[in-house]
Amino acid sequence: MGCSDQSRGSSDGRRTTLTFTLNGERVELEDVEYSQTLLEVLRDFLDLFGVKASCEVQVCGACTVLVDGAPVSSCCTLAADVDGHRVTTVEGLATEAGLHPVQQAFVDNFAVQCGYCIPGMVMSAVAFVAEESGEADLHTRKERLREFMNGNYCRCTGYEPILRAITSGLDRPSGNGAKAPAAWSREETS
Ligand code: FES
Ligand code: FES
């Protein structure tokens, strides 16, 4: 489904100031046009080039970031709508301790070809594992994963290693069986 003109905003020149949390840091931006998308603001104002522009009509998932922990298409989200919210991009996942476990799983499973889709894939996967209960059987959880990720396209068609990377965490024991599987114990918190 493509984004509407309304969700992309109108270019009447009106401007605003935005304050939000970006990768754990408070950010204030002045002089942002109401019509500017989150994708534009992240790349053009904040030099966060991990977020990719591709279809720009909410079809491919390359521009996926998390807003309050939920995946959104930044190409069809107005920057003004994240005022007061929490935004996480792929740049916000790794810590001094190393890559986020989902990023590490992509590396370990050779799940990257040209790499263009990977930041969006990783952000969707992080959202999936953060909400995955681990209560269902593995087959059901894999089916849920496929459904959850069906808005992320890979033009290199590297879906099998990508799914293998994400399910490598689902395959492992889930600790007390309650929340996320043990392999994905570092939840997205920034
Ligand atoms: S660039 Fe946003 S969904 Fe394709
Ligand atoms: S790795 Fe090239 S588009 Fe997915």
Written overview of the protein:
30% of the residues lie in helices and 15% in strands. With 190 residues, the chain is of the alpha+beta class. The protein has two domains: 15-92, Roll (Ubiquitin-like (UB roll)); 101-171, Orthogonal Bundle (DNA polymerase, domain 1). The chain has a five-stranded mixed β-sheet with strand order 2-1-5-3-4, sandwiched between helices. β3 (64-67) and β4 (70-73) form a beta hairpin. The longest helix has 14 residues, at 118-131. Residues 173-180 have low confidence and may be disordered. One FE2/S2 (inorganic) cluster binds at residues 112-118, 154-156, 158.
Summarize the structure.
With 190 residues, this protein is α+β, with helices and mostly antiparallel strands. The protein contains 6 helices and 5 strands, in the order H-E-E-H-E-E-E-H-H-H-H. A hairpin with a 2-residue loop joins strand 3 and strand 4.
Topology of this protein?
Layout: H1 5-8, E1 15-22, E2 25-33, H2 38-45, E3 64-67, E4 70-73, E5 86-88, H3 101-108, H4 118-131, H5 138-148, H6 159-170
Helix pairs in contact: 3-6, 5-6
The protein binds FE2/S2 (inorganic) cluster (2 copies).
The end-to-end distance, rounded to whole angstroms, is 29 Å
The rough form would be described as globular
Strand content: 5-15%
What is the CATH topology classification name of the largest domain? Ubiquitin-like (UB roll)
- Output the helix-strand order: HEEHEEEHHHH
- State the low-pLDDT regions, or none: 173-180
Strand order within the widest sheet? 2-1-5-3-4
Output mean pLDDT.
87
